From TrEMBL, chains A, B:
Annotated CDD domains: PGDH (cd05288)
Native species: Trematosphaeria pertusa
Alphabetical keyword list: Oxidoreductase
Protein name: NAD(P)-binding protein
Residue ranges of every copy of the Enoyl reductase (ER) domain listed in the record: 23-349
Coiled-coil residue spans: none
Gene3D superfamilies: Medium-chain alcohol dehydrogenases, catalytic domain, NAD(P)-binding Rossmann-like Domain
SUPFAM superfamilies given in the database record: GroES-like, NAD(P)-binding Rossmann-fold domains
GO MF terms held by the record: oxidoreductase activity, acting on the CH-CH group of donors, NAD or NADP as acceptor
Source species, domain of life: Eukaryota
């Protein structure tokens, strides 16, 4: 069989600020190519869903010392990297039959040839409400990030009050739920953008969720964190982090997970409140979920989460995903919704032609 | 005996930026008062030396939530607080005879009446080169801060390379020496202002000391930290901290000790490189030395330092102090040298009339 033809989005111009979606300086270019036939222990897969992750923005940043990156960057001319859920179309690997769904890294490509070892077979479970997309969401990177960050990195305990920013995001909503339903934290406070998202975060178990778009956001946040909090799980960085430095309790802890507020503009206003870290003896820990995965921790974490889903405690219903049916030529557009607060829960691109 | 007359510097106008030394908005006012006679278990002391500490700037900052301060602030109308070395003049306490030198908190006052329990008798040891001023320097707050921060807070080990900013300061020079001569760190890199200070820091054992005033400071720092470093001991905050976030190794640690670069201007440029904490899984720990003292750790720490002084490893010679003979009316002026980089080693005010 000859190679499969596919369209791919290629990184054409690594951006320094907002990604540019069209014109001569467009960040990505749509190209068509013919893939090689899969070799021994390789498979040809068809992309069904693409994962949209804030981290992808970091993978394409210009002017970053490669020694400081946590993963190989995507360089000019390469296919844009992305996690996804794919279906095996053709297989030279004994463990993967055609039709099998896998979680893998197809990139922004309709089809991809991958090593079988990089494709994790997944088993959706309709009765338990576990859909294929959950393997790039609640049971994938975001869910593991939430669990690892909260439980391992900042060692949340039942006596802790926890603030979570980006609480309506893919990771944030899982932090809220894990804090409440697995750790049993005494108080869980979300920060999200807009009334609807805040009410949704509260429906997941947050004691309160504060709307950062509200004109009196700071007052609301101060009230919600009266007496200060032991833990801040930071998904956003920027101004909200700066405020939270003033609301973490003496000897409190910060899980530094993400900084989406600055990904498109690293030169925007810097942090002013570092002194709080000193005076209040705050512990800050940066982390990347791949460390947990490499250390073989993901299995037991996923198991815990699945357990709570089956008990009906952790909710992964349709409102915990924003699945956007997307023509392949609009893949970058859907991805960019991440930076516009366009999603509730996991932002998933469903490839539709 | 009737009360002792004394001059005192009173906090008149808490500053928001640089302290103001004269004029109608002066930060401090010189006043004369008569002290009460010492009561039971109290002493009258005469101030010989005043300690100048960057932390004093934080004690008088306006607009800070008292719940976030690590110590009671000095409020308008109170005597400016300061550590010092005093001589007991009159005593109603059995353990303190007139003539005894004590380490205490006299404030900016020629004389003070203090509870005996707040006066720690000190024993200078001329043969070992231990002078009275060392009890507010190498064997006082700065020495303990250096030891606690490096050994307890960021757990320095022989296999670690350490960068220390403010390396020619009271705390910084002790961090350099403790890193080299007590922990035995593989590499110790200082950052200080000016050629003379840098060469002095190297004479204390630093493998290299980089001059932040040099036009090619960044290049020099990058070269000195090739391969990155495990630990950064931060005494200065601001731009140097921002640079160092890019030079701490993956899974490295930062001891957040001070931020003198911003004390007089908290609104100056904020930190831009927080992302490094995430991507490189950096651990940041703020700390305050009083925690170590309260926990009863200071005795063994001082003992370790004295041991190394007697072995000739840790140097506390006259070049490790800037003792400024000061008329009492110039006490604030001498203090302000701290913020101008005016001192090498501990900045001590010697009261001279």
């Amino acid at each position: 069989m000859s190679g499969q033809q596919t369209r791919q989005w290629i990184l054409a111009n690594p951006p320094t600020k907002d990604p540019i979606l069209s014109g001569p300086n467009a960040t990505f270019n749509l190209e068509t190519t013919t893939l090689p036939s899969p070799g021994a222990n390789q498979v040809l897969v068809k992309t069904l869903y693409l994962s949209n992750d804030p981290a992808q923005r970091a993978w394409i940043q210009l002017n970053t010392d490669p020694a400081r990156l946590y993963t190989t960057p995507v360089t000019k001319g390469e296919v844009m990297r992305a996690f996804g859920v794919c279906e095996v179309v053709e297989s030279n690997a004994p463990n993967l039959k055609p039709g099998q769904l896998v979680s893998c890294v197809p990139g922004w490509s309709e089809y991809a040839v991958l090593d079988a070892k990089d494709c994790r077979p997944i088993q959706p479970d309709e009765k338990a409400g576990i859909r294929p997309t959950h393997f790039i969401g609640a049971l994938g990177g975001p869910g593991l990030t939430a669990y690892y960050g909260l439980v391992d990195v900042v060692r949340a305990q039942p006596e802790d009050a926890v603030v979570v920013s980006g609480a309506a995001g893919a990771t944030g909503n899982m932090v809220v739920q894990i804090a409440k339903h697995i750790v049993g934290c005494r108080r869980v406070i979300g920060i999200a953008g807009g009334e609807a998202k805040c009410r949704w975060v509260e429906s997941l178990g947050a004691d309160i969720c504060v709307d950062y778009k509200a004109p009196d956001f700071k007052e609301q946040l101060w009230k919600a964190t009266e007496g200060f909090v032991e833990i801040y799980f930071d998904n956003v960085g920027g101004d909200i982090l700066d405020l939270m430095l003033k609301r973490v309790k003496r000897f409190g802890r910060i899980a530094a997970c993400g900084a989406i507020a600055r990904y498109n503009d690293p030169e925007a206003g810097g942090l002013k409140n570092w002194m709080e870290i000193i005076v209040n003896r705050i512990e800050v820990r940066g982390f990347i979920v791949t460390d947990a995965i490499t250390a073989g921790k993901s299995g037991p974490m996923v198991q815990k989460i699945v357990e709570k889903i089956k008990e009906g405690k952790i909710k992964i219903g349709e409102d915990s995903e924003t699945v956007v049916p997307t023509r392949f030529e609009d893949v970058p557009k859907t991805w960019r919704m991440l930076f516009e607060g366009g999603n509730q829960g996991k932002l998933v691109t469903e490839i539709k032609g």
